[in-house]
Write a structure and sequence with these properties.
Belongs to the adaptor complexes large subunit family. Residues 704-808 form the Clathrin adaptor alpha/beta/gamma-adaptin appendage Ig-like subdomain domain. It holds the Pfam family Adaptin_N. With 826 residues, the chain is α+β, with helices and mostly antiparallel strands. It has 38 helices and eleven strands.
Length: 826
């Protein structure tokens, strides 16, 4: 493209710039600029018409003043006039001024668009490129409306020059990013894919950027690009640096294009064509081989270009997750970067290995680097690298190394940065120490140690989990009571430790009461010494522990009643504490021993559910979540006995009287799903003939509960929980249905349908609001039903719920039919 030659130099502009640079103060600069602005304004308003050179010179001065940070409120029309010039330098300055100073709301946009249309139709490649650059720089919606259909035609036209094709592709990419709805998909989409075979590497590079963006929204329209991208990548990878001299960067042929092609291939699954797939595997092997070769240059640019291609190739290998040999080789290659002197390379290696650890083919290879990763966690200066090291330890953890990893994480936690403590605590409480625990006394020790070291970062889910384990394991209850009693004797004790201690001693304090050092009165005094330091919720839990003590240790009754009777409790400003104190005092006074034992009996084992900590971590970690879920299905013993707790978002919340110690637990599953080696995508509630034969087991019993209440759980099993909240006034009612996904996988095609048995349709009018067809794991969606009673009715409406979800070990579930309780009042 022609450049401004010395002959076209503007002496007046050079003098003005020199004057500005020579100003001694800000005031002098402003004075000189104001003088120049006045001169330019007079020239533009003068009677004498300015020639193209003068316009160009003055517009350049205005542009320079604007770049110095001063506002420019005139000269725009003169810049637009320059667009009609046939001289390149004048047209170039006009487009430059417009690209910088004209905004998308300008009144001049229509004039500018007309000038651009003229240049695009001129077939002069230089003018066409200037116009395309201006469109891309402004990128307004008005320009997209005007040119979105014209630019694709220029891009795929056979007589368009390479430089114009390159500019057109990038311009179209810019318009698609700003106004995707205005870029029409048409026959040009199939033709733009063939630009990957263009001889001009610049055109190919621009086309790959465009296709990579377009295919994310319309993958089917561009799926033919896979074979062409593999072919082009193969030619680049197998070429020598001398073959692509114009596009070789520090002995690396076309590094930017290679990276873009590898990213484009990550938008699609592995090629189905065996020949294409074989050629791609060969390319990836060549890239891994070249990474092992000695560097051809010591300059950092060479290693950066080489490593950029390597990491993008590894990302593609991980994306496919189908070539065991490549996955292991990629892991070994990344292992070499773990001790590299360049911080960025160590970070990228750790990040990529986190994803590799989730693959069954490369998990063992990742584990071989455990010592290096632990060392990185301890010695890295950069906190982000330490974060990735902690993530990798979490990802590589399994039954063989859980104790080592948890021990190292606990050791590191004492000196860890506050920014990553919470995530480490969640990981330790939910995954390594929980999922792979075999010795449950070790698990209890680990969690209590975790609370001691980083109690502020221990969420409720973590201590819920340890309570659940202790209640479900008879063999660890005595040890847990003894351990927590000893932990509470520390002078400074975290509130979460008090919660755990209060709960466990309230349930199993009798198991250590035989030792004079932990007699009932000693246990009570120890807990009560922490009472005044705790929050309201913890005090409420401790009051529940005290009433449990009266049942376990009758000899403590008088002491505890005095505490409950004290003004600080029975007249407490907090309603919850006051109510508990009054009710517990009354209960301990009037109830017989048998009644007290029945009301305060030991908590039953918790039902098996997925740990809410694991569910949160899976959602947060992303790529590894699926593998962990599959792992838990492959190894039924991987969960602790008593297993999985309800997800926080779907667990039902019993009243305080149902669970005196305040630990929320969802009711047990109503029914199970029969195991089978069915399809990967399962219709859980299929349209089988048996589906309509009757209600699901337990539905009638749940239905009758709503005679006396307006809200509660209508149905629950290990997949789904359905809650109901309803309100009725005269013949009108509104019902809220809450569908909770209790799994960690997504429900698809989720469709609840209301049906009317008999003549009910003429008696009831029910308007239902549609629900989202996708329900994420652990999430809850709401559906609103507006109900109008038209006449007396005796039948209840039915709701039929169908959905599909990904479960390799499950098969179809009979159709789920439930009755909805509808009340009409006169």
């Amino acid at each position: 493209m022609p450049a401004v030659s010395k002959g076209d130099g503007m002496r007046g502009l050079a003098v003005f710039i020199s004057d500005i640079r020579n100003c001694k103060s800000k005031e002098a600069e402003i004075k000189r600029i104001n003088k120049e602005l006045a001169n330019i304004r007079s020239k533009f308003k003068g009677d004498k018409a300015l020639d193209g050179y003068s316009k160009k010179k003055y517009v350049c001065k205005l542009l320079f003043i604007f770049l110095l940070g001063h506002d420019i409120d005139f000269g725009h029309m003169e810049a637009v006039n320059l667009l009609s010039s046939n001289k390149y330098t004048e047209k170039q300055i006009g487009y430059l001024f417009i690209s910088v100073l004209v905004n998308s709301n300008s009144e001049l946009i229509r004039l500018i668009n007309n000038a651009i249309k003229n240049d695009l139709a001129s077939r002069n490649p230089t003018f066409m490129c200037l116009a395309l650059h201006c469109i891309a720089n402004v990128g307004s919606r008005e320009m997209a409306e005007a040119f979105a259909s014209e630019i694709p035609r220029i891009l795929v036209a056979g007589d368009t020059m390479d430089s114009v094709k390159q500019s057109a592709a990038l311009c179209l990419l810019r318009l698609y990013k700003t106004s995707p709805d205005l870029v029409p998909m048409g026959e040009w989409t199939s033709r733009v894919v063939h630009l990957l075979n263009d001889q001009h590497m610049g055109v190919v590079t621009a086309a790959v950027s465009l296709i990579a963006c377009l295919c994310k929204k319309n993958p089917d329209d561009f799926k033919t690009c896979v074979s062409l991208a593999v072919s082009r990548l193969s030619r680049i990878v197998s070429s020598a640096s001398t073959d692509l001299q114009d596009y070789t960067y520090y002995f690396v042929p076309a590094p930017w294009l290679s990276v873009k092609l590898l990213r484009l291939l990550q938008c699609y699954p592995p090629p189905e064509d065996a020949a294409v797939k074989g050629r791609l595997v060969e390319c990836l092997e060549t890239i891994l081989n070249k990474a092992q070769e000695p560097p051809k240059s010591k300059k950092v640019q060479h290693s950066n270009a080489k490593n950029a291609i390597l990491f993008e190739a590894i990302s593609l290998i991980i994306h496919y997750d189908s070539e065991p040999n490549l996955l292991v080789r990629a892991c070994n290659q990344l292992g070499q970067f773990l001790q590299h002197r360049e911080t960025n390379l160590r970070y990228l290696a750790l990040e990529s290995m986190c994803t590799l650890a989730s693959s069954e083919f490369s998990h063992e290879a990742v584990k071989t680097h455990i010592e290096t990763v632990i060392n990185a966690l301890k010695t890295e200066r950069d906190v982000s690298v330490r974060q990735r090291a902690a993530d990798l330890l979490y990802a590589m953890c399994d039954r063989t190394n859980a104790k080592q990893i948890v021990s190292e994480m606990l050791s590191y936690l004492e000196t860890a940065d506050y920014s990553i403590r919470e995530e480490i605590v969640s990981a330790e409480g939910g995954h390594p120490s929980g999922k792979y625990a075999v010795d449950y006394s070790w698990y209890v020790d680990t969690i209590l140690n975790l609370i001691r070291i980083a109690g502020d970062y221990v969420s409720e889910e973590v201590w819920y989990r340890v309570i659940q384990i202790v209640i479900n394991r008879d063999d660890v209850q005595g040890y847990a009571a003894k351990t927590v009693f000893e932990a509470l004797q520390a002078p400074a004790c975290h509130e979460n430790m008090v919660k755990v201690g209060g709960y466990i001693l309230g349930e199993f304090g009798n198991l250590i009461a035989g030792d004079p050092r932990s007699s009932p009165l000693v246990q009570f005094n120890l807990l009560h010494s922490k009472f005044h330091l705790c929050s309201v919720s913890t005090r409420a839990l401790l009051l529940s522990t005290y009433i449990k003590f009266i049942n376990l240790f009758p000899e403590t009754k008088g002491t505890i009643q005095e505490v409950l009777r004290s003004d600080s409790q029975i007249r407490n400003a907090d309603v919850e504490l006051q109510q508990r104190a009054v009710e517990y005092l009354k209960l301990s006074s009037i109830a017989s021993t048998d009644v007290l034992a029945t009301v305060l009996e030991e908590m039953p084992p918790f039902p098996e559910r997925e740990s809410s900590i694991l569910a949160k971590l899976k959602k947060k970690k992303g790529p590894g979540a699926g593998s962990e879920l599959d792992d838990s299905k492959k190894d039924p013993n991987s969960e602790i006995n008593g297993g999985m707790e309800p997800s926080a978002s779907t667990a039902s919340t019993p009243s305080p009287s149902a669970d005196l110690l305040g630990l929320r637990a969802a009711p047990a599953a109503v029914s199970g799903v029969p195991a089978s080696t069915g399809n990967l995508l399962v219709d859980v509630f299929s349209d089988s003939p048996s589906a309509t034969s009757g209600l699901v087991p337990g539905a009638e019993e749940n239905f009758l509960r709503f005679v006396c209440k307006n809200n509660g759980v209508l149905f629950e099993n290990q997949l789904l929980q359905i809650g109901v909240k309803s309100e009725f006034r005269q013949n009108l009612g509104r019902m809220y249905l809450f569908y909770g996904n209790k799994t960690s996988v997504q429900f698809q095609s989720f469709t609840p349908t209301v049906s009317y048995p008999g003549d009910l349709q003429s008696q009831l009018n029910i308007q239902t609001k549609a629900v989202e067809p996708l329900v994420e794991g652990g999430a809850q969606v709401q559906q609103v039903l507006n109900i109008e009673c038209l006449s007396d009715f005796t039948e209840a409406p039915l709701i039929n719920i169908k959905f599909r979800y990904h479960c390799p070990t499950c098969q179809g579930y009979p159709g789920l039919f439930l009755r909805l309780f509808v009340l009409a009042l006169e």
